[in-house]
Amino acid sequence: MGSFFGWEPLQSKASKQILSVKIMSAQTEKNVYCFVSGKNWKLSLAEIASYLDARGIKFEVSEFSRSFFTIKTETALDASVIDDLGGTLKITQVAAFVPTKRITDAFLEEDKQVKKQLKFDLPLDALADKMPRAASGKAVFGVSVYWADPFFKPAARAAQRFLGSALKDELKEQDKKARFMGFPRDRQNPQLTPVEVLKQGLLENHAEILMCIGKTETAVGTTMAVHNPFEFQKRDLDKPAQRKIFGISPRVSRIMVNLTRCTPEKVFLDPFCGVGNILQEALLANARVIGVDINRWCVEAAKRNLSWLTREYSLADADYAVVQGDARDLRRKIREVDCVATEPDLGPALREVPTEPYAEKIVSSLKPLFEDFLVSAHGVMWAGSYLAVVTPYIKTRSGKAVTMNIGKMAQSVGFKAVAPFREVAFVGDAADFPLRDLTSFVDVDERHKIGREISIFQKPQ
Ligand SMILES: C[S@@+](CC[C@H](N)C(=O)[O-])C[C@H]1O[C@@H](n2cnc3c(N)ncnc32)[C@H](O)[C@@H]1O
Questions:
Q1: pTM attached to this predicted model
Q2: Which domains does the chain carry?
Q3: Which of 10, 163, 186, 393 could pair with 451 in a Cys bridge, judged by C-beta atoms 3.0 to 4.6 Å apart?
Q4: How confident is the model over 417-452, as pLDDT tens digits?
Q5: Which are the contacts of 5, defined by CB distance < 8 A and separation ≥ 6?
Q6: 302 Cα nearest atom in ligand 1
Q7: pLDDT in tens, 312-341
Q8: Residue 292: CB within 6 Å of ligand 1?
Q9: How many whole angstroms separate alpha carbon 225 and alpha carbon 92?
């Protein structure tokens, strides 16, 4: 796919090394960002793609990896975007790119000449300009380095120290007293956590500098937003009605809400709402929210939680309703909706990893519920609207995971499987993105026997 923005510097192979710094410093005046991914990078990237697409923001991905994505957007992004995303840890505004070859020459090959030159290549003055002078004492700043390929890992710590000390010199020249923040001894990767960034006030002071070592280009910039784990924790642990066993985290809930392209004012439905974790996130996305559950206790619990949320987050205009009902017969209770995200029953809680035949049995016993739900959901969704649904991903003793293959069922009901990456413009080396047709995402913890497979469908126009 071509570039929307006529932005091709990352691909001009022959001239890249000579021209890239010059070209990119002009280009990076525009809206280029590095998104540092949460632990499930595919899900994080799918969420970002759906989020931007839902808001009509054109974008291109020029780098993707397990740890970060480099994305150029047509319009500037606000720092508050991070609060809307469940799967992004940091967003950095890129100030300049340096060819990655220079980073590897300097820090893997220990080429002193290149190292010297690097001080001129890095946008030290621009980064230091942004940092305010400390009212008293020294201003604290930190540097975090991420890399796209494990090959770069040995270069990362040296690059982190180098950038920190070069920046300290630059700050001194600007007459700004500064302290370069170190890491605890046992820190595996030279990266500050979002909590450290928040607690040290680095965000307000534009004082966390990120270096993202990509496959061909290395981005350097200032962190403009970090994920606030305290807010997500609060929604998880402080809500009044808890039900530990079926809990889906606020992070994954928010990702699901975004996968349905939920934007403010849309009517959002979770027909197996439980205590309302997904509903909470949809309400925070300013949707008009409807929850359905067959269990009366859950209905009351979800209501209590949403009422708590509206107070806690001062959501004066919150519009929500939770009703007792059957997800297999939604027409009876509700009218058309714009988005559906839900986690139906995933089977019994398992004490140990099951055998494959037992896992198959669990999945077969759940199929009728999912089939009936799909028919029922199709009946209340507007044409063009999206559904994100969790199905069980059961680990078994043979090592093979047993899943439901909901795609076939959904298709026979009239849904179209959605591949969130299919329409995305991957440019430069990222054009070889291998997962274009992916329509489902697995999210599973080491310690859990049952994971989640999240699939996305659309009711065709
Ligand atoms: C896995 S839990 C959902 C958990 C939920 N995401 C939460 O945050 O609490 C599944 C929920 O579906 C409800 N349920 C089961 N069968 C149902 C049906 N036919 N219609 C509506 N709700 C149903 C259960 O009562 C349970 O609360």
A1: 0.93
A2: 13-227 (3.30.2130.30), 230-458 (3.40.50.150)
A3: 393
A4: 999 999 999 999 899 999 999 999 999 988 888 999
A5: 30, 58, 60, 72, 74
A6: 9
A7: 999 999 999 999 999 999 999 999 999 999
A8: yes
A9: 7
